[in-house]
Automatic annotation (TrEMBL):
GO biological process terms on file: maturation of SSU-rRNA from tricistronic rRNA transcript (SSU-rRNA, 5.8S rRNA, LSU-rRNA)
Annotated transmembrane regions: none
GO cellular component, one term: small-subunit processome
Protein name in the entry: UTP25 NTP hydrolase-like domain-containing protein
One Gene Ontology molecular-function label: U3 snoRNA binding
UniProt domain UTP25 NTP hydrolase-like: residue ranges: 3-73
């Protein structure tokens, strides 16, 4: 399980891929006399096919092409079919989607001198420039 995958975007992505690639792989075969019960060692690790039996869970707040390529690189499609990707982000309806297409939309950049005064300047721009001109048109 890799939680908060978006935090790993700040790292060198090649390094992240190499670390994920070697997870669950034994570095070398150990002396089995010290392991105790040899039957506990799973055959897929000895054969090097643990990639086919591994469950990988990557959690992120947003989708990203790097995440998808990483997910596909560590899954094996030949055994389990298509890898399962679940998008659990809720769909939030927006006001722009509810407007019929026949309404012309304008996106204007409102000049602001600072972030502190941006709200007031936006309101002033709307009331003096946009709203006032529309009122004059209808009166």
């Amino acid at each position: 399980v890799v939680p908060m995958l978006e935090v790993l975007l700040m790292q060198n992505w090649a390094r992240v891929q190499s670390v994920i690639e070697v997870i669950n792989k034994p570095l070398e075969m150990r002396d089995t006399s010290q392991l105790g019960d040899f039957r506990r060692l799973k055959p897929q690790f000895i054969e090097g096919t643990s990639k086919k039996h591994r469950q990988n869970i990557f959690l992120s707040l947003f989708p990203h092409p790097y995440f998808k390529s990483l997910f596909r690189s560590v899954t094996d499609e030949s055994v389990l079919g298509e890898p399962q990707e679940i998008d659990g982000s809720p769909k939030i309806p927006t006001a722009v989607e509810s407007i019929p297409l026949r309404v012309r939309q304008y996106f204007l950049r409102v000049p602001a001198t600072s972030m502190k005064d941006a709200h007031q300047e936006r309101l002033k721009y709307f009331t003096e420039k946009l709203y006032h001109t529309r009122l004059q048109y209808y009166l």
